[in-house]
């Protein structure tokens, strides 16, 4: 028996009330769960590593104008460590600081041996002693107005595209020759020039010195080419100097509090806050966690209305409003946005309840829930809701879209990594929640509100009439738009923006430290000598091998400095085999003396620079390990595996001539290289995206030929972001793959719906022109809403929350632009021409249709308002009961 209208209405209303009751019950739970969020700012490689690094020092502190012998260093040390009062008790100090070591301490330790000051300066350079910028000694004309001279040099040097030049005056606290009795003097200078290139913010052009010397002032009679402003340009080691700090357990737990304590101590010592630079891996992770918290949580000044809304919430709300402005509003669209936001909040609360710390990639998951819920609702309104689906497909659009995104996510994730596994599971939950909300919850809730969508059938009819009557022009326009957009999106500037170049990190204390002092990432290289090599080689020979290795490491890209205990040993060549006995005896005696001296020096330095390995009974040495410590500029590291390969190659160039000598490198960059060295998921993701797009298009349209047309126009060009080398696709991970899959899937599904609508209208209307016009105006509005909403979400995240995996978000923006252009412009225009006749043939129309040539003039379509159908008996009963 056919179900009556009253029973259907009652069933839908009951489902809606049950869903609303469950949602209302969950609101307090969700609100409580959102307050338990924790954030993890550690790098991905560190989170994936099984063991954490234990650097010798936790923080690096420096300030502009700092120098050796600076009295403020002693003041900072005293305020951080405290001092013993007259009663013998320690007064003052910070509970977060365990030890403070300055560059003066290291210089004194090195010069206490046979090492000269020049050798010590070279050894400490890039680790404890900075080079600063390119130093300029101005002429008398330039010194008349140093500020004007600095602006003039900045203007001239910034004329070159792709770099940023900053010229600063010499700090008054920086001494020059004759101003101090420091063992390391700095030649007199007036200005410092810092240059940051777009692709490498720490690289200084080789021609910078010559360019500075060519800068001229106003022309005069004596100097018609302009007054000479620069007398000399040079580099010098000695300012700033480093203070390295070890933190207590309390300081390691809250590095931000330790940073504040250091800032207070520096301010009390007379150091300006804008001159102070503090950095370290623990502090960087804590600051990163703070930025993630600011992106997800409302706070003072963190968002709209003085922090009432977080940037992510603002982005989702603005994207929803923009989507409604583009295609009009409807009850089911509003319900999908509200329920999508609730689903995103519910998933976030659930992750907080499980104790999962939010990372830069996991913060994308709530946006995925919102976007997929809205998109699946717009692509295929469910029957019984506020909209009725006109096209019946073998599988629903929501299922196909969610499945395509889910499979791409699983293929692009490496389940052996902790971060990828967490993101894959969270992404799978997001796809499932979005599918459930759009399929189960949105239709009954929308029907309960009793609103039908505002159907603007005449929207865009004039444009549709024009394109269907000018097929050659539209085909030319489609080809032109496709080529122009491809050329635009493949520009180097666009590729650099998508790949999030390192130049955008040119800010903050870490950049200032690495630019003026040295690297902030520690590298530890161990050189192992076995027992046989120890017997054949004297310690002077072994020290020479280590010393040569240090020099090789200093030449590697990104390494700002390297040092070892071997540099304290004198460079004494080994006598020839036929040398006199006296020469050999003298060499052996000096070698033994140097060995004792190095062991004593090693004990003074903590015993961590030279390690001897004894036998089980301790009677003899069976091995020896020399430790080399180097500093690496993190902002100069593009591909960690390339950096580690360069380091290994440099060490092997020295050790390959000596049997029984091996090496080992450790550090955060090594962990990052191991993570990058795992097999790339990119080829599999490309194949999955193309294959699934073809399958979905073929299944959705019911024809392999139609599927090939859709996939060839939308999906295959869209994966160019994973193929073109300029995008640095090797850096893309699971978040980027998901951000690319969603817009591609939406573009494919919108084209599938357009083809199906065209087939329906070709069979139902009298002419092909009418079918094209109805198909364009009927299906493109809602798919356009979905794509615009997605692009707005990704664009808003890239602007308001740049810390959330910028490469993934920007790759999603790139693909969204292409998917929108391909599905809303290129494919519809091509569909109105010969392509449309090939994939939707005229023979599919009804027998009573008329050929296209009968209609020569443009048509005007009138809106058709569907009237609800009621059973006659039900209507009569309602009339009698009302009367």
How would you summarize the topology of this molecule?
Layout: H1 5-34, H2 44-48, E1 59-63, H3 71-81, E2 83-84, E3 90-91, E4 97-102, H4 103-111, H5 117-124, E5 134-138, H6 140-143, H7 146-157, E6 163-169, E7 191-197, H8 208-213, E8 230-234, E9 243-247, H9 249-253, H10 255-268, E10 276-279, H11 281-296, H12 304-307, H13 311-327, H14 331-353, H15 365-379, H16 397-412, H17 418-448, H18 461-469, H19 471-489, H20 492-498, H21 508-516, E11 521-530, H22 531-536, H23 539-554, E12 559-564, H24 581-604, E13 610-614, E14 621-632, H25 640-655, E15 661-667, H26 668-677, H27 682-701, H28 704-718, H29 734-764, H30 768-800, H31 806-831, H32 834-839, H33 872-882
Helix pairs in contact: 1-14, 1-17, 3-10, 4-5, 13-30, 14-15, 14-17, 15-16, 15-17, 15-30, 16-17, 16-27, 16-29, 18-30, 19-31, 23-25, 25-26, 27-28, 27-29, 28-29, 28-31, 29-30, 29-31, 30-31
Protein name: MMPL family protein
Transmembrane segments: 304-326, 333-357, 363-383, 395-412, 424-446, 684-702, 708-727, 734-755, 786-805, 811-831
Keywords: Membrane, Transmembrane, Transmembrane helix
Q: What is the CA-CA span between the terminal residues?
A: 28 Å
Portion of residues within helices: 40-55%
Give the tally of β-strands: 15
Q: What oligomeric arrangement do these chains adopt?
A: single chain
Structural class: alpha+beta
Number of domains: 3
Radius of gyration: 35 Å
Which geometry do the CA atoms define?
Answer: elongated
Q: Main sheet, how many strands, which sense, barrel?
A: 5 strands, antiparallel
Number of helices: 33
Which parts are unreliable, with pLDDT below 50 for 5 consecutive residues or more? 1-8, 300-306, 382-394, 453-460, 843-883
- Please state the average pLDDT score: 79
Tell me what portion of residues adopts beta-strand conformation.
5-15%
């Amino acid at each position: 028996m056919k179900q009556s209208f009253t029973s259907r209405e009652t069933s839908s209303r009951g489902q809606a009330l049950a869903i609303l009751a469950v949602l209302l019950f969950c609101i307090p739970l969700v609100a409580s769960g959102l307050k338990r969020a924790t954030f993890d700012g550690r790098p991905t490689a560190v989170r994936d590593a099984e063991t954490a690094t234990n650097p010798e020092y936790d923080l690096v502190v420096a300030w502009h104008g700092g120098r050796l012998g600076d009295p403020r260093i002693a003041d900072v040390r005293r305020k951080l460590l405290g001092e013993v009062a007259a009663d013998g008790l320690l007064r003052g100090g910070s509970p977060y600081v365990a030890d403070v070591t300055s560059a003066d301490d290291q210089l004194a330790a090195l010069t206490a041996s046979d090492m000269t000051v020049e050798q010590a300066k070279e050894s400490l350079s890039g680790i404890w002693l900075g080079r600063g910028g390119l130093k300029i000694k101005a002429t008398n004309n330039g010194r008349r107005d140093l500020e004007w001279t600095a602006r003039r040099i900045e203007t001239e040097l910034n004329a070159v595209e792709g770099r940023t030049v900053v010229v600063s005056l010499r700090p008054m606290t920086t001494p020059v020759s004759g101003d101090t009795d420091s063992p390391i003097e700095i030649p007199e200078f007036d200005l410092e020039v810092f240059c940051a290139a777009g692709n490498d913010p720490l690289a200084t052009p080789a021609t910078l010195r010559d360019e500075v010397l060519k800068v001229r002032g106003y022309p005069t009679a004596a100097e018609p080419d302009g007054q000479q402003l620069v007398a000399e340009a040079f580099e010098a080691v000695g300012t700033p100097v480093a203070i390295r700090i070890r933190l207590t357990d309390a300081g390691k737990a809250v590095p931000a509090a330790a940073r504040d304590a250091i800032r207070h101590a520096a301010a009390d010592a007379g150091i300006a806050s804008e001159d102070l630079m503090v950095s370290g891996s623990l502090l960087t992770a804590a600051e990163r966690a703070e930025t993630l918290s600011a992106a997800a949580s409302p706070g003072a000044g963190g968002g709209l209305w003085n922090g009432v809304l977080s940037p992510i919430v603002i982005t989702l709300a603005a994207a929803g409003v923009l989507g409604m402005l583009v295609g009009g509003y409807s009850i089911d669209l509003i319900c999908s946005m509200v329920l999508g936001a609730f689903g995103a909040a519910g998933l976030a609360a659930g992750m907080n309840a499980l104790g999962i710390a939010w990372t830069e990639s996991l913060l994308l998951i709530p946006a995925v829930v919102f976007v997929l819920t809205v998109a699946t609702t717009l692509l295929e309104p469910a029957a019984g809701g506020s909209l009725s689906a006109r096209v019946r497909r073998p599988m629903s659009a929501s299922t196909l879209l969610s499945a395509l995104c889910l499979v791409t996510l699983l293929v692009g994730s490496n389940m052996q990594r902790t971060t990828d596994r967490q993101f894959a599971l969270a992404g799978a939950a997001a796809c499932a929640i979005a599918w459930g909300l759009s399929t189960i919850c949105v239709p009954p809730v929308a029907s309960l509100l009793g609103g039908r969508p505002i159907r603007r059938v005449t929207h865009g009819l004039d444009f549709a009439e024009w394109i269907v009557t000018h097929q050659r022009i539209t085909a030319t326009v489609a080809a032109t738009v496709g080529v122009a957009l491809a050329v635009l999106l493949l520009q180097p500037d666009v590729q650099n923006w998508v790949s999030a170049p390192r130049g955008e990190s040119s800010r903050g204390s870490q950049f200032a430290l690495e630019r003026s002092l040295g690297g902030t990432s520690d590298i530890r290289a161990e050189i192992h000598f076995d027992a046989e090599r120890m017997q054949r080689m004297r310690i002077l020979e072994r020290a020479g091998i280590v010393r040569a290795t240090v020099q090789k490491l200093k030449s590697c890209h990104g390494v700002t400095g390297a040092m070892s205990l071997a540099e304290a040993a004198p460079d004494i060549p080994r006598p020839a085999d036929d040398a006199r006995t006296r020469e050999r005896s003298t060499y052996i005696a000096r070698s033994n003396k140097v060995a004792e001296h190095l062991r004593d020096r090693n004990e003074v330095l903590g015993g961590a620079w030279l390690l001897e390995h004894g036998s089980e009974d301790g009677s003899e040495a069976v091995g020896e390990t020399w430790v080399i410590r180097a500093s690496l500029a993190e902002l100069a590291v593009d591909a960690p595996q390339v950096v580690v390969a360069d380091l290994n190659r440099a060490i092997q160039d020295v050790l390959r001539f000596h049997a029984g000598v091996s090496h080992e490198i450790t550090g955060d960059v090594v962990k990052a290289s191991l993570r990058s060295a795992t097999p790339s998921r990119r080829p599999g993701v490309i194949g999955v995206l193309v294959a699934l797009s073809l399958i979905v298009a073929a299944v959705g349209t019911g024809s392999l030929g139609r599927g090939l047309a859709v996939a060839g126009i939308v999906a295959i060009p869209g994966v160019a972001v994973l193929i073109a080398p300029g995008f640095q696709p090797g850096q893309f991970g699971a978040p980027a793959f998901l951000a690319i899959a969603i817009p591609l899937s939406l573009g494919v599904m919108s084209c599938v719906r357009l083809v199906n609508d065209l087939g329906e209208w070709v069979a139902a209307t009298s002419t092909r022109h009418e079918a094209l016009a109805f198909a364009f105006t009927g299906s493109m509005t809602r798919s356009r809403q979905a794509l615009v909403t997605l692009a707005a979400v990704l664009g808003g995240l890239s602007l308001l929350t740049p810390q959330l995996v910028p490469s993934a978000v920007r790759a999603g923006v790139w693909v969204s632009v292409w998917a929108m252009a391909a599905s809303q412009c290129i494919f519809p225009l091509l569909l109105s021409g010969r392509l449309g006749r090939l994939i939707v043939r005229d023979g599919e129309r009804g027998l009573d249709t008329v050929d296209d040539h009968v209609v020569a003039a443009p048509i005007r379509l009138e809106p058709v308002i569907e009237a609800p159908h009621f059973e006659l008996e039900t209507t009569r009963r309602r009339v009698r009961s009302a009367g």
